[in-house]
């Protein structure tokens, strides 16, 4: 299933099919690339290994050592999502990544979808600069303190030591610095790469999973919004036809016929438009069954009239709202002037009908977007449960005959690595 298929289903007004495609895409997120970035020695590579469930030194694990080991940006597959990759970037301040200003260009940042800023020590200006650059490019990031076990070990020497208090102090200090750097709601995770089951490591994985599913859902909703806007514009270009039908009979000098013609054309068109957008009874019932929600909950977010509610009386009220009661009475009064009056009536009938239909189509587009958002609400949680239930195997199996399948792909000809090059733009 692809984004194009989802777009086509929305365009067709087949909301059940669109929701089905979206559900499958959320369970298997699209290509999503996460950059792990920080200073040399911050524990980036050890963090990547812990995230992948690998020990330092395992086949396919990121290289670690007492000197800089990450020479090239190296890609590793996410343990659960085949289209999600972690990139272990060279440490900032090394010859391969001398400065943020030199390397972190807009073109470079655009190659990644998300960032994990990793540090082993207290917050420094370089982290603030990183956060600012990432935010300037409308990207999101988490701040990871990777060696909190060392911080706790140092604090244990104090008489009044408290692990909870120490972790809280570190967390608040990181958040305060990030907020001063302009980050409104900073996400800070304190962990140890040697203890991936403790501190914030499990929470980081869970939160990142939600981020992936949410990113996919948001991408689909953005696609549906754009598709519906295009559909709205195209359909509004066709409203001249029914408006002309409404205005034509209005030119006949018989009092009341213009109003009757308006009602007939509008009722028929509005019912057809509801069906075209997928907001008719059968479509909403099928959508509710597909997503496991109550039909009345989907209808609750619809502000425009439902198909069964579109009657002559309703259309009359909407016409009065569109044209004003004064215009309606003026249209009727103009019949006393046989030629001028009939032409004036035709123009009022045409203009009022077109305005009414255009507004109704616009309302339907907005309602369809709200219905889709409501229908897909909570799919991120279902996706996580899906992965837990099927117990997906870790993709990084230790395969001595194919080390690349177990670990990363280098972005350059590093000895012993794959020849696969980093295709992202370099500054």
Radius of gyration equals 30 Å
What level of helicity do the residues show? 55-70%
List unreliable stretches of 5+ residues.
Answer: 250-257, 325-347, 386-407, 409-427
Name the strands of the widest sheet in spatial order. Answer: 6-5-4-1-3-2-7
- By DSSP, the count of extended strands is 7
Instruction: Encode the helix/strand succession as letters.
Output: HHEHEEHHEHEHHEHHHHHHHHHHE
Write structural notes for this entry.
β2 (74-77) and β3 (84-88) form a beta hairpin. Strands 6-5-4-1-3-2-7 form a 7-stranded mixed β-sheet, sandwiched between helices. The protein has helices at 3-12, 15-27, 44-52, 100-103, 106-109, 125-136, 148-155, 163-180, 201-236, 240-250, 257-277, 281-291, 295-299, 312-323, 325-333, 338-375, 379-390, 403-406; strands spanning 32-38, 74-77, 84-88, 114-119, 140-145, 188-190, 408-410. With 427 residues, it is α/β, with parallel strands linked by helices.
What characteristics describe this protein?
427 residues; alpha/beta; 18 helices; elongated; disordered C terminus
Give the topology, please:
Elements: H1 3-12, H2 15-27, E1 32-38, H3 44-52, E2 74-77, E3 84-88, H4 100-103, H5 106-109, E4 114-119, H6 125-136, E5 140-145, H7 148-155, H8 163-180, E6 188-190, H9 201-236, H10 240-250, H11 257-277, H12 281-291, H13 295-299, H14 312-323, H15 325-333, H16 338-375, H17 379-390, H18 403-406, E7 408-410
Parallel strand pairs: 1-3, 1-4, 4-5, 5-6
Antiparallel strand pairs: 2-3, 2-7
Compact summary:
This protein is of the alpha/beta class.
